TrEMBL record:
Residues 230-530 form the RNA polymerase N-terminal domain. Keywords: DNA-directed RNA polymerase, Metal-binding, Nucleotidyltransferase, Nucleus, Transcription, Transferase, Zinc. This is DNA-directed RNA polymerase subunit. Its EC number is 2.7.7.6. Pfam families: RNA_pol_Rpb1_1, RNA_pol_Rpb1_2, RNA_pol_Rpb1_3. GO terms for molecular function: DNA binding; DNA-directed RNA polymerase activity; metal ion binding. One of its GO terms (biological process) is DNA-templated transcription. DNA-dependent RNA polymerase catalyzes the transcription of DNA into RNA using the four ribonucleoside triphosphates as substrates.
Amino acid sequence: MESYRKNFSNQLTGLEFSNASFFKNLSISQIQITNKFLYSNFSSQPCQGGLLDSTLGANKKNICKSCKKNQSYCSGHFGYIKLFLPVLNIGYLKAIQLILSMICKSCSRVLVHPGKRRNYFFKVIRKIKKKGEGQKLDYLSEISQECRQIDYCPFCWSKNGSIRKFGTLGFVHDFKFQKNKKNFQNFNCSASLVFTEKILDPLGIFKIFQKISREDWELLDFDSIETHPTHLILYYLPVPPLGVRPTVFISETMTNEDDLTMKLTEIQFLNIQLKINFQTGIPFLAIKDTWSILQIECGKYLNSEAFNLESGKQKFKSLFNRLKGKNGRFRGNLSGKRVNFSGRTVISPDPNLPLNFLGLPIILATKLTFPERVNKFNIERLQRTVLRGATRFPGANFLIDLKNNKKHIENLSKKKEHLEIKSGYKIERHLKNNDIILFNRQPSLHRISIMAHRTKIISGKTLKINECICKPYNADFDGDEMNIHIPQTQKARAESISLLNLVKNINSPGTGESMIAATQDFLSASFVLTSKNQFFSHDQIGKILHLLELGNIEKENFIPALLKPFQMWTGKQIFSLIVFSKKKKDKNKKKNFQGSIFHLMEKNYSLGKKQCSPFLCPFDGWILFKNRNLLAGQLGKSSLGFGNKFSIFSSFSIFNSNNFILNCLLKISKMTSSWFSDFGFSFGIESITPDKNQLKKKKIFLKKKIFF
């Protein structure tokens, strides 16, 4: 077994995607669609050779003829429609136009001169195939630009011009030449400029692509084994299985068919009509009209967005529309799925909420549950939740007994059954305070787009978070919605709070920059509070401490800056006291923090490092911290905001825990909502209207300027 694995690993070199060839489409198909009718006129059974043939899969009434399985086990089988005339694949129109502009329309050779230039392009494409696909677009743009500059084919000397789109699905070859040119000296005609154009239909393009030599396949970046330029044109139209386009049975005789089935019916009808018209000898113009309609219907079947549909008509859901977008197969069914025990609603800010907590509305807390097993430590608490029922908070919704029988508590209370619980039961209780919850905002671009929070039950209908944690989620409050997920086992809760805890993800895992920091009004409040002209009396300090609910903090060495006529403290002292203070019981912890010195240039308009001392800046542009006291500088975005590895909190994290940093940010946010909301000024029209003396000075000043 080990030797087989070694050989297999040596053989597997990569994974390559390419357009399917005619032979691959035929090999995966089980049946050719030859009938244009869906059901027989004499019975309700599907027609043999039709689009609902049982060979393509099973339905509710019939089993599959290919695998002999019913609808539960048969995934379906492909079929194909052989088109009487080829049509262009709407997904490869740009590729077809690019190839036509690079090759001669007569001999199908690539328009590159033989010799050095041709050998140069061969070397470039071979190097790209060895190294990787990174430079392939540059190569294609270079060779296509050179081919467009060549007017005459270097192999057959036929004239080649530009290729432009004609209508929705067609191309026109435009070229011009002079009759008196050297190449036309043998013709007896007057010198003049001739403009000609030739419409290239799908059959003509198919014949041109058929003549491309194997040598030129490499220049056009085609694999000589798997792919061919003719595969860009549809000759065999794949028909998806019945499971992709299921039939809805309204009654025994009435059904509702899928959009794809009805569109394939139209294509098959036009295909048969085109064959009949050709065999009966109808003029080519009538055949051309039917051919163009078939081309349009095949394009709508693949991608209906490329066609301008009328506003009144219902939009047709093509194959392309079923794969792309948020509700498509990849994003809607494969990448993202609906999950249980989750919720989604609008977010709103709450500056008084701790940063690692999430405000959960009581409406969601009663719907989302956590299964908790009953033991001797929690049996009394869980018994009370069961007695409250599903409608009263904090209650419980379901009870799971020892035999794994799940019972709804509301139904048991209506039947007046005894609701006594025992050890070993599982109670799906309501979420309560301090429960662990996962919080996520889409798109999840990095690891910290989903983190674990503690819950705090609140009133209202929106999820509430502190504004400082918006950066990791890239969230704002203009109507953003976020998701919550409830871990359903104790192991999942432990992993969430240990690995995805917000406390442990303050810094970015990629760059190391602080992702959780002060923002918006928090920075404004810190900037104003730490300015030179902010002074506070003893009563004002007590009011701020009361609003912030900070009573038991260190006040040692809290000496006023002004002694007379009143004792006044500066805003820098208040900021140091409130934000970076610790409780008395933490006095002996982290002694290294006491002697730490931190300085940072906050403002760009300071005199700089050469002319301005970091310890005494006249513009207050240098931040200086010593022993947890702010001695100089106005705090702003560089010192407290996002995206700086050398901010105050990043430096203080060396001597303190992450919980201390989160508490500092919480104090700043509380201070913003309490003190800074009352800070402001107002003015009226009289304050900005100049008086008589100011108007006189203005006139005198203007006269002097005019005179000089």
